[in-house]
Amino acid sequence: MAESNPESWTETMSGRERVRHVVELLDEPTPVQEIADRAEVSRATADDELQRLQSDDWVTETAVDGTKAYDLNPVRMLFDEVTDLIEAHSRDELESQLTELKEEQEELAAEYGVSSLEEFRAQLADEEFSAAELRERRNVIATWEAINTELGLVKHALQLYDDVVELSSPRTDSHSTLA
Prior knowledge:
The protein is mainly alpha-helical.
């Protein structure tokens, strides 16, 4: 990456590739100039590539403090993650992952004597905890949220599994089923 070896960064990747790499790492809407600076390209190059990425639905245009900015398209990200899961795992593997994730969620609930993440969070305000206990609970919340995110992705993958596999399979006929 650019920070560790800027020379190889600019020698091995084109400016447009560097813009795409920077965009892939965005975690919030980011102004065009900041993206250009991170990618070590001109603002014009960054703006041009960002507009292309927007037309391909990879990013969405927004504003930060009145300045044009871009963020990753969350819908595209969701579909890409679900598609990646389907391509990397069989239906049985996804069902096993779903079971394992649900077991992890249930273990957390049992360990802390709650039935949901919301109930666990409510305890933070209702009870007195030391700083160490609060840190531990914040870590548990982050873990629980990650499990919930993975559960959602795996459920989506299972719901769409047959459709994605069918649409990804090579066609033997020349007619599209989407027409």
